């Protein structure tokens, strides 16, 4: 039985709670993308954007828009101020959110491992291969996780959201532990899971403890600034994804329109990572 809520709903509730519990920076996301509202090939006609960036708000029709290069110049400056005004970035986190199925019948393929109702989600080979490729690109300061709630009803999910229990009611698995598997199963949050097809017991991980370990890493460069941290991460993600046989060509196509402003490295990095999420569904966050 498929859970009666959308994956995006879980993602939004999860991110909101994580923001309260840990020092996390949420890079350019849907809200900011909506405010930008530009056609990357030519112009922005979004008057709210130009009011936000200090341009006159008394435009009268017709409004011909502004070139992408002008947008990039303004946003590079704006993002630079934001990035410099937050604490030092210490590590990157990639989340793949999963909406589970709730299996209640003994005919379920994995029932014999639990002998009671259980949750499961599929692991797609193309996505897992990319996450594995990214994992091997970074030797440290990166956490890549699958996150899936031990919930199947929207009403229960809303109650957890109100009571701020989304994270403690979620199952987390490092992507690297799921190599070679096509499904992961669990009966509740906070316990082990069993990945299949060749069954493998995987211990539970504590998300907040993992984030704290990232913050205390001895490999953090005290001289590295946030701007360089973001640009370097984008370059490595691009390199790993471009080499991927499934996603590489599509990411190149998505980036064609923005490649003309790659000299605005900070703004360009956010746009590339936005395309990366749209293509793969993988959420990027930064630990402060």
Rg, Cα atoms, Å:
21 Å
Could you tell me the mean pLDDT? 86
Largest sheet: 5 strands, mixed
Helix percent reads 40-55%
- Residue ranges: pLDDT <50 for 5 or more in a row? 30-43
What structural category do the secondary elements indicate?
A: alpha+beta
Q: List how many beta strands DSSP finds.
A: 12
β-strand percent reads: 15-25%
How widely separated are the two ends?
38 Å
Would you kindly provide a written description of the structure presented here, covering whatever features stand out?
With 288 residues, this protein is an alpha+beta fold. Helices cover 42% and strands 17% of the residues. It contains eleven helices and twelve strands. The protein has helices spanning 7-21, 30-36, 47-52, 68-84, 111-114, 125-137, 154-162, 207-215, 226-242, 248-255, 265-280, and strands at 24-25, 43-44, 66-67, 91-97, 101-103, 118-122, 142-149, 170-174, 183-186, 193-196, 200-202, 283-287. It has a five-stranded mixed beta sheet with strand order 1-12-4-7-8. A hairpin with a 3-residue loop joins strand 10 and strand 11 (200-202). Helix 4 packs across helix 11 (265-280), helix 9 crosses helix 11 (265-280) and helix 10 (248-255) packs across helix 11. The longest helix has 17 residues, at 68-84. The two termini are 38 Å apart. Residues 30-43 have low confidence and may be disordered.
In short:
The protein has 288 residues and is of the alpha+beta class. It is 42% helix and 17% strand. It has helices at residues 7-21, 30-36, 47-52, 68-84, 111-114, 125-137, 154-162, 207-215, 226-242, 248-255, 265-280; strands at residues 24-25, 43-44, 66-67, 91-97, 101-103, 118-122, 142-149, 170-174, 183-186, 193-196, 200-202, 283-287.
